[in-house]
Amino acid sequence: MKNIAILASGSGSNAENIAKYFGGSDYARVSFIIANNPEAYVLERAKKLGIESAVVTKQQFMEADSIIAMLQERSIDFVVLAGFLLLVPQKLIEAYPGRIVNIHPALLPKHGGKGMYGDRVHKAVVECGDTESGITIHLIDEHYDQGTTFFQAKCQVLPTDTPDDVAAKVHALEYEHFPHVIEEILHTLD
Ligand code: GRF
Does the structure show a pLDDT above 70 at 145? Predict the structure, then answer.
């Protein structure tokens, strides 16, 4: 059984969706959720799902040693960033090479980089008059949103769409694809 840890900063709807997807699997499970904000709703979701969770400070995360220890103590094989806003430190990347995946709510390399997260991304898509948006699932390296892209899916953006409309379409793509793409990546590591 492969153990997945999810790192999230906010609501955690993707975290919940991924945990439920693997709920019936004997191949992998979500066994640990880490939030960097004690108010993050993802912690409530973890409780309801019966998944162990922890809160870390930004400093603790950046120093990485205690996070790496937490992950290793729980035999975590793979790390998923689902709405996680901190830059992953080099030490953590080195501890889990090719084993940390992120989802970005746009078609990278467009609308990525530092400060481009959540609604800001969907606003930028609308302001640029883009006719499509989507999701990018990529392995991470030491730069925001720049690791190897593993998967993209697109949705249409209509001239009348608001950033909220785009967000709804992108979220639908995330729920549809993120869990099975994680499973596919896990299989490449077998
Ligand atoms: C998602 O759109 C994800 O792509 C982005 O942040 C959002 C998190 O949503 N990085 P949730 O916390 O999973 O509901």
Answer: no
